[in-house]
């Protein structure tokens, strides 16, 4: 079977990673503006103050998207750019930037996919307890209302949260991401409850204000399990692991978040794992959180292998010595794409988009001025072919977004890792499409 008719080919970015203009035109501070100022937090103390300067180069960047030929562009709105204090006052100039971006995309026949939250939380709200504050779901709903009223006439695709796994885990457990405050599991669980309520209230607002919208969320599948040999036993084990978790990996598992966001309940393992630390959800709250979504996003980069040892025992996560890895050090595991999609679809039967897939590489500008990235092309081609296999096996996949359009600020890794299909020379802000850009251009034309 082939891609679905009208399959969406796209690419993605997020606000803090590309925009820059951190203090301009009335923008408020985000937790990332503050966190990156603490020396030692980020690789070589890089910050997103300027990033790809996309705020000032938006038209040039959209022209490049048009040259690429994508049908859709996924970007996120910076909450403190449109609401400097997180609640109350609205920053018209910030809204205007996104409104202009949307118009520019539509002028080029590119459909905007808006992520409401890709981690740049308003710092003023963090100072009030952030996602632990019982008012946080209402804060998020009011912010959704501002965005929906401003762009709802032109933007029909929304993603409420990007990877709730990552900003909770890295932000409040490992503390390698903003705001970098260590909380015990009980507090993080309370936070998860509020985030889930925020998601539910946001979906309700979107349905009310943009009745013809399509809405979903975008978890990461970092723990996507895949059977090295595709035997029944290994496949079943991979599915079981995918839909489960233990006390040390619950926060980053897709099972925890999918049960919460898609079914409106804490995963059945939670009561045993957390006892009285597990927050309660009333029936009303469950319905609010678990209201039907139009699609689910999946951000897939890598997965964990399930194999047999020489003596026939099941082994998790062992790859051959010297197995290929990306610039950031993640193993290259294309089969994870097939199995994550298949296992997700078999469990939830919800149409999905691959909202992120891509790799960082040690890209350089060659003597002839070009950027050759054969390993990225190979990575993308392998993942696309595994995705197609999942489609052939019945998964309803609506579209695919490469992460990322531009090299950008890779969170705690600063500018050290390059994920883009367009190279950014941060000294001059010159954009150089890499070979993978032209390869993708061809895929879009020919698939
Ligand atoms: C995030 C992106 C990030 C990418 C590569 C995803 O977890 O959504 O913001 O740049 O992975 O690390």
TrEMBL record:
**Catalytic activity, EC:** 3.2.1.21
Its catalytic activity?
Hydrolysis of terminal, non-reducing beta-D-glucosyl residues with release of beta-D-glucose
Give the top-level enzyme category: hydrolase
Source organism's superkingdom? Bacteria
Catalytic center at which residues? 356 (nucleophile)
InterPro entries, per this entry? Answer: GH, GH_1_N_CS, Glyco_hydro_1, Glyco_hydro_1_AS, Glyco_hydro_1_beta-glucosidase
Keywords from the named record: Carbohydrate metabolism, Cellulose degradation, Glycosidase, Hydrolase, Polysaccharide degradation
Q: Name one GO molecular function term.
A: beta-glucosidase activity
Q: Which family does it belong to?
A: Belongs to the glycosyl hydrolase 1 family.
PANTHER family, alphabetized: GLYCOSYL HYDROLASE (PTHR10353), LP05116P (PTHR10353:SF36)
Q: What is this protein called?
A: Beta-glucosidase
